[in-house]
Amino acid sequence: MSFVLDFESQVLSIEKKIAELREVSKLGDVDVANEIIRMQAKVEKILAQIYQKLTPWQKVQVARHPERPKFTDYLNGIFTDFVELSGDRLFAEDKAIYGGFAKIDGQKCMVIGQEKGYDTETRLKHNFGMPKPEGYRKVCRLFDLAERFALPIFSFIDTSGAFPGLESEERGVAEAIARCMEKSFQISVPFIASVIGEGGSGGAIAIATADYILMLEHSVYSVISPEGCASILWKDDTKANVAAEVQKLTAPDLLSLGVIDALVPEPVGGAHRNKSATLANLKKEMLKYLNKSLASSPEDRKNARRTKFMNMGKQFLAK
After folding, report:
1. Which of 67, 75, 96, 99 is nearest to 86 (CA)?
2. What is the DSSP letter of 265?
3. From the DSSP assignment, how many helices (H) and strands (E) are in the chain?
4. Reduced to 3 states, what is the DSSP secondary structure of residue 157?
5. What is the pTM of this model?
6. How far apart are CA 126 and CA 136, in angstroms?
7. Tens-place pLDDT, residues 39-72
């Protein structure tokens, strides 16, 4: 681990000691294997205690962890035979969103995801995972292709929101997001969405209007970032931790509210500490919910998807 969150600081010294012992073990003069195992178990115990009591704001920090698996990790680790499809056929290619044909356990599918990048160069290339209108118009094109070839769709959400710059507004980002949602209600193929990091604003829901929405345990999903919420409500973005508390943006809260359909457990210490286990957990749930969706007829699937979103929140209005 090269980046440790502030609330994880108590394990930092132990992990440094483990790293030193591993270097010593390479020399072969001293057997330190048992000590490494003992110290690693101690780290996992401390992390388990910390992560059982994370506040919503701390979960936001975990969701934004720079080493958290990105969309391309899931793409390469879960799918095979990926063929990228580029451009919206109207304006440009948007690298904040990847998409194309792929296979999952031999099943042909369409896969779409928001990519943040993992270092300065790739973050700039992918615009920090903030799509512009052309990115969402590309998504609509891929939705149409999936419908034409009867391919299930898997989407991966990881964005702080759509790009808010002037050029994005000039090219109609709100309309492009709305078109994505409209298209989601028109297609009849199975559609499984997974929130893997940040699910921010319309930038997230544009590719999350699905039959089933899965959410990793320490991801977040909300209409606005805590900082943005605090700036609007209190004119003070330093109150982001307070905003996170009231936004109900964590997976357990959203599951209880019926906004998502499944909470996918993460390894002890978060997805960034064990990427392979995280990918395996999510893949298992994706296939489970794909089979549930396939059990319905295309027309029933489309109608159920629309009904699900149209009814969302009605139980609170009735109170």
Report:
1. 99
2. P
3. 15, 8
4. strand
5. 0.91
6. 14
7. 888 888 888 888 989 999 999 999 999 999 999 9
